[in-house]
Amino acid sequence: MKKALEWKGFRDKEAGKRLIFRLSVLAAFVLIFIFNVLTPMMTDDLFYSKTVSEASSIWELFAQEYTQYMTWTGRSVSHMILRFFLLTDKMVFNVANSIVFVLLTLLIYWNVDHRKKYDVPVYLLVNLLIWMFGVVFRQTVLWETGACNYLWGAVIIMSFVTLYRYGLRREKEAAQMGGLKHPVLWAALLPVLGVLAGWCNENSSGGGLLIVLLCLGFYLYEKKEGFHSIKPWMITGLLGNLAGLAIMVLAPGNAIRAQAQPEEEHSGLLGYMARFQKITLAVRENFLLLLIIGLLLFIIVYYQKKSWKALWAYSRNGFLWAFVFLATCYALVLTPEPQARAYFGAGVFLTVAVVQFFVDVSEKEVIFASLKTGLISVMMLIMFFTYMDSGANLARIYREYNERDVYLTQKAEEGVTDVTVPMLRPDFETKYSDGYNSDIQEDPGYWVNVAYATYYGFNSVSGVPREGWTEY
Questions:
Q1: Which parts of 306-425 fold into alpha helices (H)?
Q2: Which letter does DSSP use for residue 138 in this model?
Q3: Measured distance CA(125)–CA(105) in Å, rounded
Q4: Whose CA is closest to 372, among 268, 293, 449?
Q5: For residue 435, which of 408, 410, 463, 400 has the smallest C-alpha distance?
């Protein structure tokens, strides 16, 4: 009887944790969905939308992407996702993008070892780190074109990595877990996901391939059976990933775009040293506080484990993801002038490492349990005020974009050829909106003005300060 009551209490407790975890996932969806709704179409969204509207069939969409592959960029998977979304209402993207953001949080969570079942604090930390330290969040997560390139790319890459690591774990613990149930399906389907993961983003896809290779290497070392322990799906998955990366990197458009890059001040070895320095400064700019948090957690784990050997045995996962983060960042030394958002995938890898060290901090001593709870609590407090303030500004920016859209649509229907519209008021800037960076200017030849003119069908669009605008 006593054992039955204890089992019932355990089941009730687990059910409660499961419910709270699911509510946390739902809250993550709602919070990002609101910001997605309040983010209007901007810049490249307009250019691509105009191009997509000229396609009369799905095949023409693929033809458009083939042209881009041959003349501009090899990131065909991300751009095809974007093209399909631009065929639909923006609300479809808002819902899908919010789901994919939540999937990213779960993929990071699933790649952390030693966590408890339905570990709500760990899941909250994952969300907080992405919201607070996600690289150029306004462009890589909320802006439609940027999200398809970076958020969706990161999710595809992390999905492949997660499945590959899951397969390795099942094979490693085959005696207890029974190995994979459908190895033939894995061998046939994993390379498909591998191709997609390799074809997403140059440095992030390379980082995904690197973590898979490292995990496979440690699997072979620990199995001590040499190549006899390799299963077909391990090879086909890797080959698919390599093929996808090669297809993207070898795109003729990449070579053409490289020729259009401005000439660098230095060349040869000195040029690469200059790039290395720029990347180092970018790492400091984008990740310094996150690196500090991770370093402090790592130091605590080190002193708790009392030796490098014990630390490596227990926290190897954190080391591997931290190494892949650095490799993903410094792989950009091959690119003359990488955009800031190119570090988004590296930030995802670093987030896994930081959360891993957080989990590895033992809570046996009250001070460290308090420290972990305090860290999450303080971050939640900061994020609450940031979200409320930024949400209000996002709503104001959205209102002004919407007013402008209604006005431009009306003028287009009236057959007006040259239009003047107001620029944004200067008081609503927030790190979660790219609205000001993507705003029109007074010069009708400015590239954003040209995007608006092309999208609505005008000869020109000019901007004026909002204070002097009186038409609406």
A1: 308-330, 344-360, 366-414
A2: I
A3: 10
A4: 293
A5: 400
Burial of 451: CB neighbours in 10 Å, binned 0-12, 13-18, 19+: buried
* Contact yes or no for 254/75 (Cβ under 8 A): no
- Round to the nearest angstrom and report the end-to-end CA distance of the chain: 75
Query: What is the distance between the alpha carbons of residues 45 and 456, in angstroms, rounded to a whole number?
Result: 13
pLDDT in the model for residue 10: 59
Specify the residue for token string 């040029």.
271
CA atoms of 216 and 239, how far apart (whole Å)? 13
Amino acid at 325: F
Of the pLDDT bands very low, low, confident and very high (cuts 50, 70, 90), residue 472 is confident
| Measured distance CA(96)–CA(82) in Å, rounded | 12
d(CA 240, CA 191): 4
Question: How big is the chain by its Cα radius of gyration, in Å?
Answer: 24
Whole-number Å distance between alpha carbons of 112 and 356: 5
Alpha-carbon gap, residue 442 to 120, rounded angstroms: 49
Dist CA 92 CA 88 (whole Å): 7
Q: At 8, which amino acid appears?
A: K
**Tokens read off for 352:** 């896994």
**C-alpha dihedral sign at 15, 21, 27, 30:** negative
Task: Name the residue among 230, 249, 226 with its Cα closest to residue 238.
Answer: 230
Given this model, what pLDDT does residue 262 score? 66
The C-alpha atoms of residue 457 and residue 182 are separated, in whole angstroms, by 54
Q: Which residue has the tokens 């795109």?
A: 251
Q: Which stretch of DSSP H or E encloses residue 464?
A: strand 460-464
d(CA 93, CA 49): 13
User: Which pLDDT tens digit goes with each residue over 258-317?
Assistant: 776 767 666 778 888 989 999 999 999 999 999 999 999 999 999 999 899 999 999 999
Backbone angles phi, psi at 461, to 5 degrees: -130, 125
Helix (H) or strand (E) holding 419: strand 418-422
> Is residue 229 very low, low, confident or very high in pLDDT (cuts 50, 70, 90)?
confident
Count of Cβ atoms closer than 10 Å to residue 185 Cβ: 11
Distance CA 401, CA 423 (A): 9
Strand blocks (E) in 57-132 = none
